[in-house]
């Protein structure tokens, strides 16, 4: 199988767009469920889902209907006024939840920036935030300073100070790092961009205990792992630990930009004027989020994520590769530095869209609506692409 791609988009972009992306050479124009089509009419099985964003798949009718209705009613009013979709979304996310208050932004990066500011406001004279090496919290200067990957940081130094990094799952290092200067610990319960690395329960329990001793906030970045992706609404729900603050984005509105910070009452340190956003929590994004959450609940998609994730993991393990993750947030290690070539061959020869987070790591974050037959199809196509890449490398 070989897919012919004919598109003038790369040449057009080269003359008008900042060169910030190394895009794959296809132009996607339409989607339905777990499948997308390019401008040459080629069909692909999509295991990237907008990088864990399209939790209901592409062009879900519930999101389309919510957007159309809200767009014909009220798009944007700013946060100078109350709006009902924002209020209803805050109520949905805090009802029967460990969290008492919500704040809405436009992305995961903005959610983490807001959480960093909230921690500093909470801490008073305590300003330091402990984060983890290998983490990823965003691209703005504050979230980038929290990110524990020097290759992202080096071109933009000097970065804001006040961050200390320790190795994931190193309890002793964490306990040494948390002291009288610490206002918060910020971590991903499953590190995403570094290759799908879950933190151990023992480490999370130690982080909770150390924060309690120091009077610091425990903040979980669930931008990628939240919204049902791991089989529970939050990844932390399958651990013994509940954070003081959680950040969300990506799948929250099924493809419409939105981010959220949820906090316990004891952590809700913001006062009027401390933080703000013009577009955050606008009626359109909140209506899409409400529709997304209703479908996840009504169609029991968290249970589907758990079941299909187990099916995926079993299928991938049969290929003889290491599999990590939980639910539909999976990473696999290739035998040798062929992951990026596997991505190319999967797309070009086998009509499968996947993502590499490193030279040896592939990431699969498909829609939560994926069916059993589509999982089998994805495993079969991926196996063929890995075989092709290994033969090339031999």
Overall geometry: globular
What is the CA-CA span between the terminal residues?
21 Å
Mean pLDDT: 96
Helix content estimate: 25-40%
Sequence of strands across the biggest β-sheet: 4-12-11-10-7-5-6
Low-confidence stretches: none
Please report the number of helical segments. Answer: 13
Q: Helices and strands: which structural class?
A: alpha/beta
Q: Give the H and E element order.
A: HEEEHHHEHEHHEHEEEHEEEHHEEHEEEH
Task: Record the SSE blueprint.
Blueprint: H1 9-14, E1 28-32, E2 35-38, E3 43-46, H2 49-52, H3 61-71, H4 84-94, E4 101-105, H5 108-123, E5 128-132, H6 141-146, H7 150-153, E6 163-166, H8 171-177, E7 182-187, E8 190-191, E9 197-198, H9 201-214, E10 217-221, E11 245-248, E12 259-263, H10 283-298, H11 301-317, E13 322-326, E14 329-333, H12 339-350, E15 352-353, E16 355-356, E17 361-364, H13 372-393
Parallel strand pairs: 3-15, 5-6, 5-7, 7-10, 10-11
Antiparallel strand pairs: 1-2, 2-3, 4-12, 8-9, 11-12, 13-14, 14-17, 16-17
